[in-house]
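Case study 2.
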Amino acid sequence: MKVVRTLLMEEDYGKRRHKHRRKQRPYVYILSLLLIVAWVLVIWHFSTQSYQQQTIQPWLHKWSEKVKIGYALPDVQFTYGELEYSLRQRPYGFVEFIFRKSAHLFVYAVLAVLIYGGLRYRKMRMFTCMASALVVVAVIASIDEYIQQFSPDRTSSIRDVGVDLLGGCGGIALYIGANVVFRRFRSPRRSSVKRK
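Prediction:
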């Protein structure tokens, strides 16, 4: 009899928790939408800035004067679009290019994770969430590149949309990987609690 009572109490507690979660869901979903909109506005704000407002080369010049590098830089070079980048010949331009593309990867990884996480919270299928997040990333990145055409000394490129999509894919992959690791670390604790 005690076992039955305990099971009924646990079931009732579980139902109450489930109802409580259901009440919270609209607020969490609205919060995730607000975060996505805010992040998109941040992205578009940076798109409207001129090259002079965003360049990190003056900071790199000051930093290199303080930290004197006593060895020759390796001869790493590549072409991106119509421009050539060389670490030995134009080190500041090279580093700035790497910084800018890394920023693209990071910004769109965060956007993809916000969209993916918001949709997963709504209990949508994983593949649907991934596809939706990447479609939104592609659309926002395309608009971002279009806006950049009107910013002084900035260029827009379809290649950058590809970089942004790579960032989105990487962000979703990291998010899923972190969830898997978190659940694996959390599941042994649950099973040990149940055994006790």
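The chain has six helices and two strands.
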